[in-house]
Design a protein that fits this description.
The longest helix has 30 residues, at 11-40. The chain is elongated, with a radius of gyration of 17 Å. It has helices spanning 4-7, 11-40, 44-64. The chain is mostly helical.
């Protein structure tokens, strides 16, 4: 954290300090916004459509933010 510009040039450090954290926080924010909008919707069809959109986008964003095996910033699923 002392030399942030150098840290941003390293893929693994940038992923875990910026991309992972922002992706997860944005996913949580989308879930919260979706829940609020669902409560305010009057029609059942609109509630289901809002839930699908907001929760779907949040799920995709969170899945993208996970360091899956096979990616350059990968971590093992199970540690020995």
């Amino acid at each position: 954290l002392r030399n942030f510009s150098v840290a941003m040039q390293i893929n693994v450090v940038r992923f875990f300090t910026i991309e992972h954290a922002i992706g997860m926080i944005a996913g949580i924010a989308l879930v919260h916004i979706g829940r609020v909008k669902i409560r305010k919707a009057a029609d059942a069809d609109r509630k289901h459509r809002l839930a699908m959109v907001f929760f779907g986008i949040a799920l995709v964003l969170m899945i993208i933010s996970i360091p899956w095996p096979g990616l350059p910033v990968a971590r093992p699923l199970f540690r020995p």
